[in-house]
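pls ignore typos typing on phone
C2E + seq
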Amino acid sequence: MFFSIFSKFPNYNLKSHKKLALLTKSCYNIYKGVLTMKISLVQNGEIIMMNDKNEKFYLLMEKLVRSMTMADRFDKYAILRALADMCRYFGVSKAVSEFYQTPTNAKLQKGEKTIGFDDGNAGDICYTEKILTKSRAIVIGTAYMSKDAAPLSPEEEDKLKLITRMLLSFLSRHRLEGVVEQFTFYDDTGYRNIRSFLRYLELLSEKNDLGGHTAVYYNLRHYTLVNRDIGRSAGDIAMRNFFEIIENIIGDKGIICRVGGDNFVAVFRDELTEDILNVLKGTPVIYDTNSGKRIMVSASTGVFRMPEGYKFDTPGDIMDRILSSSQAAKLGGKDSIVFFDEKMEVGKEKRMHMQQLFPQALKNEEFKVFYQPKIDIETGELAGAEALCRWFRDGRIVPPMEFIPILEQNTDICQLDFYMLDHVCKDIRRWLDEGRKAVRVSVNLSRKHMMDVDLLEHIINIVDSNNVPHEYIEIELTETTTDVEFRDLKRVVSSLQQKGIYTSVDDFGMGYSSLNLIREIPWNVLKVDRSFLPVDADEDDSTRSIMFKYVVAMAKDLGLECVAEGVETDHQVKVLRDNHCIFAQGFLFDKPLPLDEFEKRMNDHYYKVKDE
Ligand code: C2E
Ligand code: MG
Ligand code: MG
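k done
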């Protein structure tokens, strides 16, 4: 009755109701009732001049229900105020609620206890209610009364029961919503997850506010090696601190979330972009709070600036853009930040086209082995060769950088590498049969092979089926950055070595070179990347010269053969000689050569090496 009258007069107007009041006496009574209610509510929700106890109860009830059903703007304090009024109404001096996610947690008292109201006169428990919810959470409500308070009538007791149960069911739903929110929008280590990110983007989109925001996807560089160097728990701390540095810059102007592993996404207002990218390029981060020890953390980052008025079909559009630019940043070596531009979409089509062409091209033998000689600079002797792939397509030679990274996005690269090995073996077999001075040839193997548990068998099968003595084959593998790969790499290299096949670390110094990589894995050869090789303008004491010197010395100490890649000048040959690095590969001697030209070099067998 009360609610229906109330809802009929939502915008109560005194004048019109005075007229109404004149109509009939009964009407007037209704009017009086409504008027009283209205006045009491107008005065800021505090019910102060109500005589009818029942009416007061319903008003308090309505206030409580209202405060709990404001789902869109949840206000804890409005609920607490309504609860306090209700407690005063019953003479309850203290109200306590408890929430436990499971019965076990309840037993262990692992939950939340909240004092909803306390006027300081708490005496004995007057009422307690415990509910086991469907999801097996436990909620408990307890009311206390001061010793000298008047006892409740049976009717009042019923009402208190009703209120308590209502509050508890609200509380359990609210808490469970919190739990669901935690599970849905956070990962198990407490980072906000990708769903938080997508929800935030949806929100911006609803407000037409995407324009003026920048989204980034970043992957921490070489984090597995960082973990190995400083330990996993210190690595976790550094990761969290790095996250917090960015989170603090973002403040309430965006959001940052973890996608998984060492991958993160963020979206924020454009004006923060510069500061955030500066952090991502590389920032010293504390990993040991006691000693203040720090480590440099940096990321490969893809960036997408949303232009004014930008709209998406789904938030996935933004994910695609930042993901593909971050992959480009990862492949790009030095340039660790790549901004998305429309050309990348074209790149995607090109990539898909190439992947489609590949199987037929392989069948057609469009891929050719080129050989780049390796020279012993002390004797000038042809000491070996590296097999490098060239794709003959539409009358053009496609260089590996244009197709290898694409083939590496799935396992196509593995087929190509085995194809190369097979062709190399066939050439070596023929050289041996023809009585030529055959040399050892190294073949590049993509890291993608590390997942192949039968890799060793595959390699041995190819070599043996071509009847090639194992010592003519060398397998080049690049440095690795993940723990799993490190273990696999160790297993693969050790087993190849047992079979008498040579192994080399390719491009040493390009990535995050870890000493463990060469100390713990039994390589035969270390190929020093050309970025480590001093250039002519470098002084003897330049960083590059010193690094080169130590890398070569270390390789020798560990019993590794050392090959310098990318030797282009006579001066560099002198640097090699001064540092006792006797094997060189580079344009100074030869570019990668087609088979017939390389065979000519095999016939000559010696190079003229200038003696500076
Ligand atoms: P890589 O294995 O480090 O091969 C050496 C690269 O350095 C070759 O590039 C070679 O042409 C180049 N190079 C040699 N000497 C010099 C020099 O003096 N100066 C300069 N600037 N460059 C020099 P290429 O042939 O373009 O191959 C690029 C990369 O593609 C290779 O680097 C290798 O990682 C990959 N690759 C090539 N063939 C294969 C293959 O069959 N399988 C796999 N998995 N990767 C391959
Ligand atoms: Mg190589
Ligand atoms: Mg190399």
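Residues 350-604 form a domain with the TIM Barrel fold (CATH 3.20.20.450). The chain is about 45% helix and 20% strand. more later
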